[in-house]
Design goal:
This protein is mainly alpha-helical. Helices cover 55% and strands 6% of the residues. The strands form two sheets. It has a three-stranded parallel beta sheet with strand order 1-2-3. Strands 4-5 form a two-stranded parallel ribbon. β1, α1 (17-30) and β2 (35-40) form a beta-alpha-beta unit. α3 crosses α12 (268-295). The structure holds tryptophanyl-5'AMP. Tryptophanyl-5'AMP binds at residues 5-9, 18-19, 22-23, 41, 44, 132, 135-136, 144, 146-147, 149-150, 183-186, 195-197. Keywords: Aminoacyl-tRNA synthetase, ATP-binding, Cytoplasm, Ligase, Nucleotide-binding, Protein biosynthesis. It is found in: Cytoplasm. One of its GO terms (molecular function) is tryptophan-tRNA ligase activity. InterPro entries: aa-tRNA-synth_I_CS, aa-tRNA-synth_Ic, Rossmann-like_a/b/a_fold, Trp-tRNA-ligase, Trp-tRNA-ligase_bac-type, Trp-tRNA_synthetase.
Length: 332
Amino acid sequence: PARVLSLTQPTADSLHLGNYLGALRQWVALQDDYETFYGVADLHALTVEVEPQQLTERTLRSAAQFVAAGVDPVRSPVFAQSHVGEHAQLAWVLSCLTGFGQASRMTQFKDKSARVGADKANVGLFTYPILMAADILLYQAERVPVGEDQRQHLELTRDLAQRFNHRFGEVFTVPEPHIVSSVGKIMDLQDPTSKMSKTSSSPNGIIELLDEPKANIKKFRSAVTDSDTVIAYDEENKPGVSNLLNLLSVFTGRSVEQLVTDFEGKMYGHLKVAVADAAMEVIAPFRQRTLELMEERTELEALLLAGAERARAVAAKTLADVYDAVGLVRPA
Ligand code: TYM
């Protein structure tokens, strides 16, 4: 079967609802039809300042959350990026094929570096998408399940694969992003015109899956809507209500149109309660499972090591082909 690969960054104590719906849920679904590889982008996490102990903890938590979401480590190797040295090795080769201008045009880089201030932004932040391209290309992945915010990075990845193949011969599979439109961009609950994000302005706008259920219920119930009273889907004029309808649809399997009919004549408060209930039915057991897995620390570490071994078997082959293709003398 064709391959699928994706990673998340361990840059927070918990994954948020956008990560879960946009990425993790798709990862789980794709396991049935693809050969799947899922990783923790711990090297990427070094692009922002983080306490060493915290990085370790968050990496293990990420693996636990993958499993709690339904990633089956028997079918899908779960690994830490830093455990497979080939990621950094291929990133170097690809960086030598990436134009300075091309890297400068990455909007996430522009946003992130603007946020920390140009003089504080590190070079890792700049080359970040190239490491991401290496993550993907090493596994010859055909599909990459991600949220909308990663689309431009996937474009760069495709471009680098094509450039390499054109210049050195067919080595890489050119990957396609796998972005599901209903969940590709989950919006912030307090600022529904922006995507839910770790760096969002208000902590109340983001549902961290491992937070106390009570806190999350409160966040859903105090989601920003509008001064109107009609429950209708209109992303432009009613972004808050539309985000809630979309979330309820995703969690219940009912279409947005059906929901609009269901809620005819009802108040926004009813909708918020329904969203909170439906979401917590999924989030609460997910959290419980994650906390249980976190108690078996050595098992999580073993899971990552076993995953890395399987990942390396694939990655090493690709890297050897790349080194050959560019003319590096074989070490043995
Ligand atoms: P990261 O860690 O920021 O996010 C993890 C995944 O969650 C998706 N996502 C969202 N989806 C829907 N709505 C949202 N509001 C939302 N916010 C985040 C992201 O698109 C992502 O799929 N660069 C990547 C990590 C990475 C990677 C890779 C991904 C490193 N190497 C190779 C795929 C393949 C990142 O920072 O994701």
